[in-house]
Amino acid sequence: MGFIEDNQRERIQFILKWAEYVRTHDDREWSKQQNIIINSCLETASMTKEQFFRMKKR
Amino acid sequence: MRFTKSTIEINRELSELDMFTINFTNILKKYTPYVIVSGYVAILLGRARASEDIDIIIPKIDFPTFESLLKELRENNFYCLNGDEDEYLFEYLLERTPIRFAKQDTIIPNIELKCSKNRFDELALKKTMIVKLPGEAELTISHLELQIAFKEVVLKSPKDLEDAIYKNCCQGNYR
User: Rounded CA gap, A22 and B11, in Å?
Assistant: First the structure.
């Protein structure tokens, strides 16, 4: 299998594992972990309006 | 997470993205029905990724309603990235081009707001689920089965396929 297929397979394995974790743990527990990603992404994101629209057009 | 046929109850810690979406839709729903679709729905249900925008579909509305909506959004510190003129923005929306709203002095996150333009959008508006969150917050999302089908069959990007897989898995409770 090539790198892309291996990478995609690993990504899907992680999604399945994480979904299982979300199903089997308290909402507060998994969402606290998830929010580290979400809140830090929003905090560090910085671009101009023009850059944003250019990115969306691609 | 608790699933019924038409509701999902999530006692989650709300993220900045959730608060942004709740603040916007609390205003929006005074003026028009709406439905949240696409990537943010997967994130709301726990998908481990972020998003710069939240996609929302509304039915066609008239100009006075749109004007009132804009007024209240501006009073609550939202602005439209596409411009300032109400008539211009309304034409944009009527032509079924999305318009984007963010908090003043920010670009991200933003709401991508569009009018229903095809049968998929109409179906999304018709077949909805309510997500119940802490603090009596509620968000209206498109039915999960519809979104999964749309991502798997129509969009099909790697990210969309992963979102579809995730949504399929986390529904295990009520299948």
Answer: 12
